[in-house]
């Protein structure tokens, strides 16, 4: 049984509640106290702004079998006084009703003993609004002299409200107004704190994204850290980043009716959060297994609708943009994000391949933020995708910070791609430069070789001109002197004959020099025919030996001939062979030391005959040996020793030997004979082909 409460005591009770409780349910406790004090069946207390009910509000009801069950509010708890309290406002009370509007407008209390009779009497044409009570006692709640709330007491049957009831309502007015203001301020402070915390989270998110970009050079690692930090800051279940690879790299526009041919690749995804829906995870894992088996079957079927591009083990899972309704919708919505509080219906229309890669099983809240090139007309690079297992409203603040995150991620992608292109370009240019430097080095080396060759040729030319000048001037000087002596030796026939012989010899030298040049020029292109005649080598050597012994008499040289008893007769050109032997014997006589012998040796081997002419002298240096057969080339120091010659003899010999299909070699080494220990033996060896064996007995 309830007992009346004095109005003054009621105010004290409410103030005591305000002083001792800071709980969010304080308004419900006040409604309970006021309802019990006035012996009402219902007490409704609510904050009011612009004649609209706002938070906080509370409704207390007394349980009674006589109440209309439809008027009972949800979430009720039975008190010891058999009362039921409700946190939500009563759905049957609307402040648009004239009774409540007058209370708020005039700030006066209203007491109605029978709600239905009062409405019918005051306004017969006004329809009776059904309420869960008949008697009404209502009044405003004030704070600082202004109305900030409303109090409504009701009874389920007609009842005459006493003056004490009005006093109780008046006593509670300021206290309830204070409570409403206190709760609103507390909620406002809490809201501001939450907002500050969110802003701090968002700021830290942007800082972490910027730090990831600054500290990493690989775009995959940057994007992985971006999605992990974003999922953690926004407290969603899962996140992933998708990148587009266009078949046409020049695709720049987004037409509402055109979807480009592009692959959507999953490049990174976050780990599941602790609050993720376990059932959704299980479904996702099961779907992943079933998808793997289905994909294998789809690869064998030509008419499959959706295929996952994963031909290589290291390739990222991918699907065509046209295969995903969500991605296609987000593409055409760019640069604005596609925010879906409950994407259940759209997810149900998603193709199986794309849905499996996106792991949409059990997902309700979905957000796709496009990664663009920096402006609304730029190419869409991909999407930042956030998923939640429950319906989730995406606030403007979240969308704003996500746009900033996507802008930074887009810049990181573009900068990384630009850096890679620049590095590739630098690498290519460096390779080209290195190749150019290598070519230049080779050209420089070749130029240096050519310059050295030119220098040597210049030296050779100077030496040749010096030699030719000497060889030409010496006979001319002798002839000039002989002519002068002829003029002075008139009448002396013996002297005239002597000088005429001198003139004849020197003219012959000049003629031989010119003939050597002509012969060398004639034989170099191998255009002179060979006249093959069977020759007798021993007779040929005997003819040459007599002439050279006379020439070598001044140096006391001898010709030592070493021939086998059976000397082969072979067919060759006798004139060419004689000229070769003549040049070699002449050369041997020039460079032989006085009192030595010139050795001529012959031997045969199979189809070849080998002839060798050796002399003993200062020899040929190792540096001169490779060039001894070059035209106009003489040994080092030969010109300084005043040894006559033009450097044409050995070059002519080599040319003639090659014309006979033979070869010639030279060697120079210290002599082994005890008599010539200080001399070198220089040998020229001819190898000439011979006719089929036809031996001549030369021993007789």
TrEMBL record:
Molecular function via GO: phosphorelay sensor kinase activity
Entry's EC annotation: 2.7.13.3
Reactions catalysed according to its record: ATP + protein L-histidine = ADP + protein N-phospho-L-histidine
Keyword Acyltransferase: no
Annotated Histidine kinase domain residues: 467-692
Residues passing through the membrane, by range: none
SUPFAM superfamilies noted in UniProt: ATPase domain of HSP90 chaperone/DNA topoisomerase II/histidine kinase, GAF domain-like, Homodimeric domain of signal transducing histidine kinase
Location of the region described as Disordered in the Swiss-Prot/TrEMBL record: 71-90, 279-315
Kinase as UniProt keyword: yes
Keyword vocabulary terms for this entry: Kinase, Phosphoprotein, Transferase, Two-component regulatory system
Compositionally skewed regions (Polar residues) per UniProt: 75-90, 290-315
Listed InterPro entries: GAF (IPR003018), GAF-like_dom_sf (IPR029016), HATPase_C_sf (IPR036890), HATPase_dom (IPR003594), His_kinase_dom (IPR005467), HisK_dim/P_dom (IPR003661), HisK_dim/P_sf (IPR036097), Sig_transdc_His_kin-like_C (IPR004358)
Name used for this protein in its record: histidine kinase
Species: uncultured Microcoleus sp
Lineage: Bacteria, Bacillati, Cyanobacteriota, Cyanophyceae, Oscillatoriophycideae
